[in-house]
């Protein structure tokens, strides 16, 4: 989870380090291929996924654009096209393809995309830790008790049927909660994107940035808790 | 990935499952969660004369999380409040032989102990 934390200085250094072609040592202007000798270049492991796809760090994303770029890069890096090339190039092609696949999987899913963005931005925002949702925890543990009781009960009994009714109602409530959470997330996504689009570097923008990220972190955590208990609930009463 | 024997044992025969009344005298409650996996853990201690006389837990989560909290309650009993604060997640990792992907479960247990101790202290101080 925390493997993507970046430090701006490190990144600058890495980009400098890879600004030279590994093969002909000429300076690199192009992204993934050397202009002079046309050799494929390793995608730095520290290059973030958004940059990898040439996308701004926004949360709303056109899946079509992402897919098109993914296919384009997949073709460029695919190991099949490097079978007759040197060992170095084959290794680079494999590494780049693996990185590209992970990047695509991560960015394609809105939740994973947001989680990833939070990891990326974690370095720039202090105290992105979540506030534990005490009420939700209590609710989850209470529901867990009811589930245990239901599991231990004789399914044909009257008490089991009362429990089942209660659990079905709980399920409906929780699923509504899930929908609310997703709606809240979408709202935060557009707030984030609007802020990114404005690109202001003011103190106020920084504060707003931090606030959005923290809120997003909290909501994503709550989403995981609720999702877990819903899965358990559904599996038990199914 | 296979669970270690000790994890399976705690999972199948959890020690000290249950809860105390939060308001009860000398009871400290810690409820913590792991946002990465959605596990929730409640750990409670009952303190008399600075010694933990009883401990209980309730955990909603994977086998390792249950085992970690079950083990924690076992260890807590008989310890003084000060000794309890010294329990480290690494001790739990070692005892249960947890694999790297499950280390956060032991961290959760340590957090739960800390939260329960803090809650106990807060209640004691407000008297």
TrEMBL record, chain B:
What GO molecular function annotation could you give as one example from this UniProt entry? iron ion binding
Gene Ontology biological process: iron-sulfur cluster assembly
Please list the coiled coil stretches. none
Q: Which UniProt keywords apply?
A: Iron, Iron-sulfur, Metal-binding
Question: What InterPro entries does this protein map onto?
Answer: ISCU, NIF_FeS_clus_asmbl_NifU_N
Q: Which is an annotated Pfam family here?
A: NifU_N
Biological role stated in the UniProt entry:
A scaffold on which IscS assembles Fe-S clusters. It is likely that Fe-S cluster coordination is flexible as the role of this complex is to build and then hand off Fe-S clusters.
Q: Which PANTHER family match?
A: IRON-SULFUR CLUSTER ASSEMBLY ENZYME NIFU HOMOLOG (PTHR10093)
For this entry, the protein name equals Iron-sulfur cluster assembly scaffold protein IscU
């Amino acid at each position: 989870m925390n493997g993507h934390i970046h430090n701006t200085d490190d990144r600058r250094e890495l980009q400098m380090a890879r600004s030279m072609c590994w093969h002909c040592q000429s300076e690199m202007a192009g992204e993934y291929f050397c202009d002079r000798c046309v050799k494929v270049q390793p995608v730095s492991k520290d290059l973030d996924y958004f940059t990898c796809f040439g996308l701004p760090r926004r949360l709303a994303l056109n899946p079509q654009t992402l897919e098109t770029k993914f296919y384009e890069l997949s073709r460029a890096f695919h190991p099949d096209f490097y079978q007759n090339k040197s060992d170095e190039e084959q290794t680079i092609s494999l590494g780049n393809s693996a990185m590209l696949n992970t990047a695509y999987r991560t960015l394609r899913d809105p939740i994973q995309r947001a989680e990833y963005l939070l990891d990326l931005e974690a370095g720039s925002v202090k105290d992105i830790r979540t506030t534990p949702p005490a009420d939700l925890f209590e609710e989850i543990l209470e529901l867990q008790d009811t589930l245990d009781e239901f599991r231990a009960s004789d399914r044909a009994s009257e008490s089991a049927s009362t429990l089942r009714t209660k659990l079905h109602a709980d399920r409906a409530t929780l699923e509504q909660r899930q929908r609310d959470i997703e709606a809240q997330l979408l709202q935060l996504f557009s707030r984030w994107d609007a802020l990114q689009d404005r690109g202001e570097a003011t103190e106020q923008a920084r504060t707003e940035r931090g606030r959005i990220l923290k809120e997003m972190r909290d909501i994503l955590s709550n989403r995981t808790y609720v999702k877990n208990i819903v899965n358990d609930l559904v599996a038990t009463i199914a | 990935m296979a669970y270690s024997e000790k994890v399976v044992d705690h999972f199948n025969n959890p020690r000290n499952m249950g809860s105390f009344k939060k308001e009860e005298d000398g009871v400290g409650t810690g409820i913590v969660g792991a946002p990465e996996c959605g596990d929730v853990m409640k750990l409670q201690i009952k303190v008399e004369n600075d010694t933990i006389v009883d401990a209980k837990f309730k955990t909603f989560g994977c086998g390792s999380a249950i085992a970690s909290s079950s083990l924690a309650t076992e260890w807590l009993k008989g310890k003084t409040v000060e000794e309890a604060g010294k329990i480290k997640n690494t001790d739990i990792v070692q005892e249960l032989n947890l694999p790297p992907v499950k280390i956060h479960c032991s961290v959760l247990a340590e957090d739960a102990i800390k939260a329960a101790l803090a809650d106990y202290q807060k209640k004691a101080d407000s008297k």
